[in-house]
Write a structure and sequence with these properties.
By secondary structure, this protein is of the alpha+beta class. Helices cover about 30% and strands about 30% of the residues. The protein has a five-stranded antiparallel sheet, covered by helices on one side. A hairpin with a 4-residue loop joins strand 2 and strand 3. Helix 2 runs antiparallel to helix 4.
Length: about 160
């Protein structure tokens, strides 16, 4: 059985023991989109959403989500993130808001789940703030786009 598994010798779920791993600089970036009606995107752009500044609130929610990842995803390690950056961009040609999050730390385990959680929480916040005018919005293409650090090396999405 591998040293880095979520199962013990009896087949019970456990948190992976990363105590023997070297600390390295870890970084992960994830992206996703919230696709909506053109009118909804214009409301976000113009500041016409009644609940407030959608992009600012979603950015903050994404940062907070990254910090709460071990509370949401079973068996994730609580991490001392050194940086969480969440960017939201309007994509009028796709009637979408793109969400991108980058998480960093120096540690023994990666930050992929934190970046993916940040994107997901920010996208859900966009949906929540705009659902009164557009219940048909879709959260799509949430994916890891970059990972560096650690024993498994780097990853770049195509």
């Amino acid at each position: 059985m591998s040293d880095f598994t979520h199962f013990d010798a009896e087949g019970k779920a456990v948190m992976v023991d990363v105590g023997g791993k070297a600390e390295t600089e870890r970084r992960a970036t994830a992206k996703g989109e919230v696709v909506m009606q053109p009118e909804t995107l214009e409301m976000i752009r113009s500041g016409g959403v009644k609940k407030g500044d959608v992009l600012s609130v979603a950015r903050l929610a994404g940062i907070m989500g990254a910090k709460r990842t071990p509370d949401l995803i079973p068996l994730c390690h609580p991490l001392a993130l050194t940086s969480v950056k969440v960017d939201l961009r309007l994509l009028p040609e796709r009637n979408a808001v793109e969400v991108e999050a980058t998480c960093k730390l120096n540690g023994r385990t990666g930050v992929e789940m934190e970046a993916l959680t940040a994107v997901s929480v920010a996208a859900l916040t966009v949906y929540d703030m705009c659902k009164a005018v557009d219940r048909g919005m879709r959260i799509e293409a949430v994916r890891l786009t970059h990972k560096s650090g650690g024993k498994s090396g780097s990853y770049e999405a195509e």
